[in-house]
Amino acid sequence: MEEIFPFIGYRGRRLFVEDVDVQAVAKKIGTPAYVYSKAAFSYWFNEFDSAFGDVGHLTAFAVKSCSNIAILKLLAEMGAGADTVSAGEIFRAVNAGIPSEKIVFAGVGKRRDEMEYALSCGILMFNVESRQELETLNRVAEKIGKKAKIAVRVNPDVDPKTHPYISTGLRTSKFGIDYDEAFDVYMKAKEMRWIEPVGIHFHIGSQILDVSPFKEASSKVADLVKALRDKGLDIEYFDAGGGLGINYHPEEKPPAASSLAEMIVPFVKELDCKLILEPGRRISGNSGLLLTEILYVKRKEGKTFYIVDAAMNDCMRPSLYDAYHHIVPVEKKETVEIVDVVGPVCETGDIFAKDRRVGRCEQGDILAILSAGAYGFSMASNYNSRVRPPEVLVSNRDFKVIRERETFGSLIEGEKILWL
Description:
Strand content: 25-35%
Structural class: alpha/beta
Largest sheet: 9 strands, mixed
CATH architecture of the largest domain: Alpha-Beta Barrel
Helix content: 25-40%
Number of helices: 12
CATH class of the largest domain: Alpha Beta
C-alpha cells in the first residue's frame, strides 16, 4: 500500500481503507459517508497509551471527538475510559461498555440534572470549573445522598500555540479556574460535606504540535498539588487533559506521544499520582475519512469548482476554523488542477478547500476528505434540512454500517403541527 496515513492509502490507482476499496463502499452505501478504520483506531490508541506505561494511568478518550457507540465499544475493549462533557456522552459511554469508574465529567456548564445522572452512574470524578458549579454540585450530591468526587480544572495560563478557538488554558478562556484562585477553591471544597476532592485537572488546548507548554503547565499544577497536600488534601489523580495534535498534511509528522510523556511523567512520578489523559483527535482524527461525490464541475476563466454532495453541515471544521483537510480522489488521476472544493449548502463559507491542487476529476468522481475521524460526524447538523450521513466501520476486508443514513422522516421526528 502507498500509505497516506496508517491503514489508509492507494493500492495501484485505488484508495483503500485496510483491505477495503472505498469505491466499493461509495457504490454500496452511497455518499456522503464517513468511513473509519478499526485497525487505525487500535494503532493510534496503542501508540498513545503505551507511551505512559511507566506510571499508573487511564487513557480517557474524548467522546466529543467521535461519539459513535461502536467506536466507543472498540476503545472500551482496549481499556479506554471516557472524557465526557454532557450527560448524553456519559450515556453513550456507559452503553458502549466503558466502566463508570473510568468516566470523567468535564464541561463549563453542567446542569443539575446532568450532575444527578453522573452521580447515579458512579463516575470517577467531576472536573469542576467554577465556584458556583462546586456549590451546585454539593447541593445536588446532598439531595441524592451521594458524595461527589471532584478535581478542580485549573487554568495554568499557558499558551498552547494553537488556534485561538481551541486554546483553553489561557487566563482569558471561559474554561477552568485561574491558577491563583484554585487553592482557595480547594480549601472551600475540603469543608463541603458532600464533596470529596480526589484530583486536579488542566487542559490547555487542542491540536497542539509543540509539546513544551505541557511541561510548563505540569510544573505549575504539580506545585499546587504539593501545596494542597500540605493542607491535608489527598490528591490522587493528576489529569493532564488532552490536546496532542495530528498531521492533517500527510507529508508532515506529528509529535510522538512519547514526547508528550517526557513532559508530564516526571511530575506524576514525583507526586506518586495516577495520571489521567484525555486524547480525542489524536486517536480518532486520522482513523476516518469522508467520502463525497462530485455533483458538478464548474470551470470558468481563472477558477474551477468541484461541487460535491457533502457540505459544511456534514463536516464543520473547514468552515468553522478554516481548517485544512487533505483531499484525494479515490481513483488516482494522471493530471492535477487547482480547484475549490465546495458543498451545496447556501452559505459562501461552505468550502472544504480553496485553490487546492487535486487530481483532475469529472462529474461523478468520488473524493475522500481525510483526517475526518475527529469532529466530523460528531459536529454534523441538519442545516438546510439535510440528512446526516452514515458511519461505516472497516475491519480487514469487511465493512459494516454503524450508523444508518438519516431519512426525511428523521428530519421532522419530534416536531408537531399545532393550531392555537
